[in-house]
Design the sequence.
């Protein structure tokens, strides 16, 4: 998965979910191609990227996240 890693490591800034979706869509396409996944197609690649970006049930936010982000924003 060297090519997929190189692709993802070149991207230094992702400004929104749409950019993240397209970045991951390309990443999964490269990764599945590298491992010769025979069932890989655009639908599977898009579903993987969409789930990674838009499925909020996969994330757990701690209670202090919002207050911590506000404090960090003041300093940076």
Sequence:
């Amino acid at each position: 998965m060297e090519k997929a890693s190189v692709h993802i490591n070149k991207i230094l800034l992702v400004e929104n979910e749409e950019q993240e979706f397209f970045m991951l869509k390309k990443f999964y396409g490269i990764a599945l191609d590298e491992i010769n996944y025979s069932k890989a197609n655009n639908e599977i690649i898009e579903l993987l990227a969409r789930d990674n970006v838009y499925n909020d049930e996969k994330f757990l936010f701690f209670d202090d996240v919002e207050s911590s982000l506000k404090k960090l924003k003041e300093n940076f």
